[in-house]
Q: What sequence folds into this?
């Protein structure tokens, strides 16, 4: 009863978010568990309604708020994401080897979210490997459900990685770029989303310590262990692969080749080292929730030299480079603890 009243009162109140946060804990003083949950949600800027939801089905990853979910996921410390399901299946196997996790004989890695058919997710001890599809809308849905998952499971100190591919800007193909900050097509370090008819703006820096730790590992392993060059810089996040990234080979193009080159030059002048399609949402949502995260992408092409990305064996090898870097970081952290 308390839960219903609370939910209805709040939903009908039309009060501002902040006021809502301030008001709710006092309303539920008779239920200390809910009160504690409100506090945890409030601290992380998450949705207070979650504390009073009796059921929550995480539709796109086919999981449900439950005691079972808590037991199965409470040990999660690292969530690694990348666009393609195949890549994240390979990463799951790779990290399993690196951290030396033995599955019982006859047991294979299972896609936990198979039922949803939207994302493919694997759990390897404290690591989740999951694909996010293409673009901010797709990764946004996944991040919402994963953030709820780690909240419901009571996970502590979780770090997120986006292990991806990108186009480099004045960067040799095969180079790994660790994002310092994501920017939009107008070089604004802001993730903008329309919510209830208003623009909501969130900051897009990657966790500085995490960036430095990854760069440090990159330095140690540069030119060996299949890692090659690792650099850091701003990442431009586009809403499209073609016009949105100034390509000349899309179905639409209403600019000249020299206008394209001027824009790429401007990218360089603004400190942009690479272009991809999810970093704004990834950093924007994680920063807002005060969760550590970093974007690590390998360049498949130098956009100053062309637009075409050709599928070939070298790209497969390139895609594995961020795996190696992240796996080394995770292994090192696990050995510390
Ligand atoms: O290689 P992933 O991680 O999928 O990411 C990049 O590749 C896709 C475009 O081909 C976009 O999603 C872009 O961000
Ligand atoms: O140029 C590229 C390559 C990979 N992914 C992108 O978004 N752009």
A:
């Amino acid at each position: 009863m308390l839960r219903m009243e609370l939910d209805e009162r709040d939903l009908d109140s039309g009060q501002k978010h902040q006021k809502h946060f301030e008001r709710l804990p006092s309303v539920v003083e008779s239920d200390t568990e809910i009160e504690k949950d409100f506090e945890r949600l409030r601290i992380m800027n998450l949705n207070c309604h979650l504390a009073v939801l009796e059921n929550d089905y995480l539709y796109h990853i086919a999981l449900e708020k439950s005691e079972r979910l808590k037991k199965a996921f409470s040990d999660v410390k690292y969530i690694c994401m990348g666009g393609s399901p195949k890549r994240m299946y390979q990463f799951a196997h790779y990290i399993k080897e690196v951290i030396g996790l033995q599955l019982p004989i006859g047991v294979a890695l299972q896609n936990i979210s198979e039922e949803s058919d939207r994302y493919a997710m694997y759990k390897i001890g404290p690591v989740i490997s999951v694909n996010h599809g293409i673009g901010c809308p797709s990764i946004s849905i996944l991040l919402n459900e994963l953030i709820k998952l780690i909240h419901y499971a009571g996970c502590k100190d979780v770090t997120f990685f986006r292990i991806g591919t990108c186009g480099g800007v004045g960067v040799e193909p095969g180079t790994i770029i660790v994002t310092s900050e994501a920017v939009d097509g107008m070089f604004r370090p802001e993730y903008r989303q329309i919510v209830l008819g208003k623009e909501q703006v969130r900051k897009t820096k990657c966790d500085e310590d995490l960036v430095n730790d990854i760069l440090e590992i990159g330095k140690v392993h540069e030119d060996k262990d299949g890692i090659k060059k690792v650099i850091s810089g701003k990442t431009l996040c586009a809403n499209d692969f073609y016009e949105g990234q100034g390509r000349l080979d899309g179905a639409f193009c209403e600019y000249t080749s020299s206008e394209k080159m001027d824009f790429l030059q401007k990218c360089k002048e603004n400190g942009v080292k690479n272009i991809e399609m999810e970093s704004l949402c990834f950093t924007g949502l994680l920063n807002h929730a005060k969760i550590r995260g970093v974007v690590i992408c390998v360049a498949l092409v130098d956009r100053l030299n062309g637009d075409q990305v050709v599928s070939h064996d070298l790209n497969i090898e390139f895609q594995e480079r961020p795996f190696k870097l992240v796996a080394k970081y995770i292994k090192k952290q696990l050995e510390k603890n």
About this structure: Residues 243 and 260 are 10 Å apart (CA to CA). The chain has ten helices and twelve strands. Residues 1-29 have pLDDT under 50 and may be disordered.
